[in-house]
Amino acid sequence: MFILDDPFTIAVQLPPTTDFMKSYHLTVDFEVWFMNRYTPPKNECFRLETRRTVQILLQPGSLQTVSRSLVFDYLANSAVILTMYSSLISVLPRRRKPPPDPVFFILFLFYFCDFFYFIKIQVISTKLRTYHLSVCTALLKSADSIEIFFKRFASLTKIVVAEGNSKMEDTMAELIDRLEKSEKPWATLEAECVQLSARLSQMFTHLVQLFTSNEQVFNYMYEEYHDWRLRLLGEVFFFQERTPSQLLAPEYSRYLDLQNVLSNSKYLKRLPKCPIFCVDTDSPMENCPIIFEERFVSKASATSPNATSPEIENKLLTPILKRKPWMDKEALLRRDSGSSRSLRLLKSRRKSVDSPRTLITRSTTFHNSPGNRSTMIVTSENGLIIGNRNGNRTLSPELPRRISAGETPNSSPEKSSSPRNYEVNSPSTSASSSPLVEPNKDTLRIKALVEFVKEREEVKRKLRGKNYEGWLYSEQSSPSFRPPPSLKSLSSCYARDAEHLVVFVHGLEGSSDDLTPYRNILRVLAPNSRLGFLMSRTNQCETWADINCMARNLLHEIKEHLNVEGLNIKRISFIAHSLGGVIVRAAIGIQDENSTWLHPLLHTFFTINTPHLGLMYLGKSANIGVHLVQWWKRSQSIYQLSLKDAVSFRDSFLYNLSTNHAFGRFKNILLLGTPNDIFVPSHSALLESCKASTKDTSAMGTAYR
């Protein structure tokens, strides 16, 4: 980890016809250049590794502040933390045409007009009043938002903010009165803009000097951004409680219909966007991940997350509130007390590893351990981490709020003992206040909030029309999300005394680097959990061969890795993609001395788009592709997954695999699939019922069921 600590300033000149009620965006490219450390530091020796395009929000009338991490690459822990302060600092009004000759204009009005006071009415036009109102309001609101930001972090910066005697409304009324009484309104407008701009520019300069090097303010803003992301996630995270008896019910997936309901509504478009938006990694609101979680609990609890009964609240939240998330050493993989989970993420592309936003997951637990809960981690392209774990972080059921200077922090920072004096005063005034014509942004924000709540309730009504009785995570009093990951923890993520080995197994024609992003996520989220990692590479060139042979190769690789590293492993978990999940099941099911030593150590099994039920009952295009691969590659593994490796279906590899009880040897099972995957259907990845198989009366359909 390198601390750059390199602040820089970007000055942006907006067009002359700027509307101060609208928002603008500045596009900035951040690039990572690499040079060999053993070569002389020359410019021609650097090469461009990667680039990220960022859109920075520019909103006249308010200070925008945010601190977020910007990830550059999935295959390495390459990231920087950006802290942004953006504000309007000056406005210089200019007239397109020079004013008329005042002597000629006065004589013209004197001879041809009935009333001499008509001079003032003609000079101060409605357009001038409107422009004066919008410009002065934007400058005063920007200064007011900076002053609020100073007050929020006054104790951390050891400063004392002295408030002025007048409010913004009084100051605005004085400026309007001064314009009305002026004989040269344009000159008055220019003078007032220069005065307000000078004060605003000075305040912003002091803000940059005081806060760019303050680590406490930076940490607070970073946690605030993480909280904003969780609030945003809670608005698209649906959950539903069901009984364990419904887990094996012959129910078919209907989540594509629910996705269409959400996609056709205005609900997603009303979600706010981060002030620093990365085009390459962040997802637009209309294409953000939609998550459906099914909770299978042993006892029926409240149907509403808003129930106030203490008895009901204990049933729902006691397992979550027992321990804080940062008190757990095993932050990622733990037991579940008789419960199972199902996560469904929609709106995706085809490749499951390259596009992990399109996911359906189903997990279950075979060993009951009171007081513990299993943890499920799902990553998406925009960097969101979804986890079910113990925690007491509370999400508000309100609209995900945009991080701005006008918001009050959840808890006041600690006060310092030796403050410095810094005075932020508003211009004094003695004029009486008058009502403003400028629309209040607080009123617009409340109106947007009301519209958002209406759209959310309309979406929930349509979902209930589809027989979905679920709730949003934002409506839950205490959802279990983890604290924000810190990039500073990367220095201690390579533990020599690992006690928990996580084995990553790639899929068909894959490599050991396919699951590297998942390993990096575990390193960032659980740096002190004593996790060891093994990226399996023994079957990189043999994925078309017999699955039983690949299973024995995997067992031999794990045993050899433990002997070479000399690790005292107490737990072993598997994260497998595609064919890798079938290989792991076959390896665990081998009943000889090469695998029995592994059974007491098995902990968690996490599969990603694994064809547990084979490659039958696909679409027409997928069937053509599978038959083409079988004819071209003569692959034994494809024959085994298609129930064509034996004369009798009950003698096939896949049928025997379903009877080896490999799933039952793990404490936690998490199955993850996607409805849009072409070659691995979601019912095969999630062990669900299939409509086509229930209608098939042949011998293959009977064996499949």
Short key terms for the protein model shown above:
20 helices; AB_hydrolase_fold; transmembrane helix; 19 strands; alpha/beta; 3 domains; ten-stranded mixed sheet; Rossmann fold; DUF676 domain-containing protein; three-stranded antiparallel sheet; membrane; Lipase-like; 17% strand
Textual characterization of the structure:
Helix content is 34%, strand content 17%. Mean pLDDT is 72; it is low at 115-122, 300-304, 306-359 and 365-438. The chain is elongated and about 100 Å long. The protein folds into 3 domains: 102-214 and 415-451, no CATH class; 236-399 and 452-484, no CATH class; 498-705, Rossmann fold (3-Layer(aba) Sandwich), CATH 3.40.50. By secondary structure, the chain is α/β, with parallel strands linked by helices. The two termini are 53 Å apart. It contains 20 helices and 19 strands. Strands 14-6-8-9-10-19-18-17-15-16 form a 10-stranded mixed sheet, with helices on both faces. A 3-stranded antiparallel sheet has the order 1-2-7, with no helix packed on it. A two-stranded antiparallel sheet has the order 3-4. Helix 5 packs antiparallel against helix 6.
Count of extended strands: 19
Net shape:
elongated
Q: In the CATH hierarchy, what is the superfamily of the largest domain?
A: Alpha/Beta hydrolase fold, catalytic domain
Strand content: 15-25%
Number of helix segments?
Answer: 20
CATH architecture of the largest domain: 3-Layer(aba) Sandwich
* Helix-strand category: alpha/beta
Helix content: 25-40%
Radius of gyration: 31 Å
CATH class of the largest domain: Alpha Beta
How many structural domains does the protein architecture include? Answer: 3
CATH topology of the largest domain: Rossmann fold
Distance between the termini: 53 Å
Give the spatial strand order of the biggest sheet: 14-6-8-9-10-19-18-17-15-16
Give the rounded overall mean pLDDT. 72
Identify low-pLDDT runs.
115-122, 300-304, 306-359, 365-438
Main sheet makeup: 10 strands, mixed
